[in-house]
Design a protein that fits this description.
0% of the residues lie in helices and 58% in strands. With 119 residues, it is mainly β. The strands form 2 sheets. Strands 2, 4, 5, 6, 9, 10 and 11 form a 7-stranded mixed beta sheet that branches. It has a 4-stranded antiparallel beta sheet with strand order 1-3-8-7, with no helix packed on it. The N and C termini lie far apart (40 Å).
Length: 119
């Protein structure tokens, strides 16, 4: 099992910045991908950013140029630096770890942290 604990959410004005952190514990061997998803009220959960063990990153179109995902392997922590925040970034942000690949992959989720951007 893997436990994920997010922190760093909060209320910020448009144009501001936040850094989310996700600390992992437990059996984190064979974790292949780490990432962040978000879910706004009435909307589906969507990928924001991800990073593979090899360091390859992927961003949603809305995150490109504003958000940066990074990791600290020594601390078993993944970060999401969010700059130039917009009201439409308001959502619950979830940390996500994936073990394995493809159809046999297993997903772990954090409890979520609220990000609210005021206009």
């Amino acid at each position: 099992q893997v436990q994920l604990v997010e922190s760093g959410g909060g209320l910020v004005q448009a144009g501001g910045s936040l850094r989310l952190s996700c600390a992992a514990s437990g059996s984190i061997f064979s974790i292949t991908t780490r990432g962040w998803y978000r879910q706004a009220p009435g909307k589906q959960r969507e990928l924001v950013a991800s990073i593979t063990n090899g360091g390859s990153t992927d961003y949603s179109d809305s995150a490109k140029g504003r958000f940066t995902i990074s990791r600290d392997n020594a601390k078993n922590t993944v970060y999401l630096q969010m700059n130039s925040l917009k009201p439409e970034d308001t959502a619950v942000y979830y940390c996500h770890y994936r073990r394995g690949w493809g159809a046999t992959a297993y997903n772990y989720w954090g409890q979520g942290t609220q990000v609210t951007v005021s206009s």
